[in-house]
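Regression check, magnesium ion case 259:
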Amino acid sequence: MTLSLPVSGRLRAAVEARRITRRFAGQAVLDGLDLEIAPGEFVALLGSSGSGKTTLLRALAGLEPVDEGQLQVPRALAAVFQEPRLMPWKRVWRNVALGVRGEGVRERSLAALEEVGLGHRLAAWPGTLSGGEAQRVALARALVREPQLLLLDEPFAALDALTRIRMHQLIIRLWQRHTPAVLLVTHDVDEALLLADRVLVLANGRIAEQLPIRLPRARQVTTLGFQPLRARLLHLLGVETEAEPAASVSHPLSRTASR
Ligand SMILES: Nc1ncnc2c1ncn2[C@@H]1O[C@H](COP(=O)(O)OP(=O)(O)O)[C@@H](O)[C@H]1O
Ligand SMILES: [Mg+2]
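Current build output:
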């Protein structure tokens, strides 16, 4: 495996994965996968449970080796997972500052907390936060690293519907202000369509399908063109709806489907 991390500077692409393969007990979960993400691009990754979404994200984060292939990611990357993963014995701002080096770490941590609307909770203990607040702290912890690549693994899945809507608005605001490339893993077709420039479907260890999403922002499920894309993505994921898919496509979840 080659993992090359550039020392500094903007990459031509924020992610360049070439034919990466990851096996568990001889079974390829990622199987010659190619992926490129442009600087500042917002990409959503859909796929059925167990299709390897988390494995791919962990590989990009450097938390998981790959057995074959080449992977290029920026050094400045940060990840947020479904659980906020805060240290319960450290106050909120210290969780944000954890592992950050350089000048003014406290001030930078506070600024990140302000950005996610939690400036007033800087000295709180993680155990006193709501689920949505804890996830916003996790976002602040990612932001303070000024990532060129932000990896999100179902970060809103455990939140209630109203909190999730607020988190969608927050993530778009932060993305537009800081312009990292984003890879968002989600189960939720609507979430993918509301947020992403491009939606990928992972199946059989590869990117089986991808759809550019050219809907104007800010998007709603009632935005013109949303529902046909939704029907098409659900079709690609093997769920049939009453609405007509945007175009007929081969089924990506069968072994015989070509890429
Ligand atoms: N550390 C591991 N050891 C063995 N098998 C694993 C490991 N991590 C993931 N897997 C397997 O790889 C497959 C993909 O897992 P995962 O990437 O978590 O899927 P997803 O996030 O799409 O639900 C699953 O079958 C899972 O059991
Ligand atoms: Mg997962």
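Comparison notes: Residues 24, 29, 47, 49-55 surround adenosine-5'-diphosphate (ligand 1) (CB under 6 Å). DSSP finds seven helices and ten strands in the chain. No diff flagged against the previous build.
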